[in-house]
Amino acid sequence: MELTTVWFALIAVLWIGYFVLEGFDFGVGILSPILGQTEPERRAILRTIGPVWDGNEVWVIVAGGATFAAFPEWYATLFSGFYLALFLILVALIVRGVGIEYRNKRGGAVWRQRWDIAIAICSFLPALLWGVAFANIVAGVPIDAHKQFTGNLITLLNPFGLLGGLTTLLLFITHGLVFLALKTEGELRNRANGLVTRVGLVTAVVAVAFLAWANVQTGNAASITVAVAAALALIGALVANRVRREGWAFIGSAVTIALAVVCLFLALFPDVMPSTTDPAFSLTTTNAASTQYTLTIMTVVAVIFTPLVLLYQGWTYWIFRKRVTVQAAPAKP
Fold it and tell me: What's the pTM value of the predicted model, to 2 decimals?
């Protein structure tokens, strides 16, 4: 296997890690002011992601860095063409992180309420815009002979792109609900558990429609097979949640998101950014890649350090694996 293909696959893995881990973060952030009916409940909801949300965001930084190093042409076209959308995501991630850290720094109800709204909005925007971005990457965007994006933000807000955004938004909300059912106790757990089925059924319909549309446009036998597996995984997650097996439900929703990302990357390959202007202008794993020497050095570094990062993050989740109770979140004076 060529190193360009290896790094295309590794970048897909990084996005899988980001969407699976940060996906429930986004879902929890959106649900916090909705699912939490009292201040102690809202604090407990945010405490479920308190030890891990910042570590989860590392995945997107590494994915961006790996794209820059392995496929500089892809990085340049993507980040310049999608500049406004990615800028909105960046601002939302910053405000969201500040909100999680600052909402309990003061005791006023208005102070906390404003930060809760900010966290919800700034979780909603990335959950939506990441889907819009990836849908457009797979379907193709206007790129000229100089490998420059010739559209604008309105170009990205097409029906397929918006359906992709709605899909990721609903997937992350469902994933967040399953995570909250897994990590909380009592009435909060029951409330989250009860919402999973209703939200999950809507998610399943939208996700199936999006993946089917994607495969009609650019799919192949492999991507179609993975799309079917993703749908089955989501159904399995809903069934597991129904019988109160939240651990299996969380695995099912995580596998659903992972397989959905795999489906999109399989449908995209060997392109990394198709051109709707002329297929000859498309960026591929070959014409967008770095030199063989650069890819070789990157591969050696990845083999050494990736297992260490995975072990550390796995250890973090193991340490904070216990359920969060509402009583365990006292208000600060």
Answer: 0.92
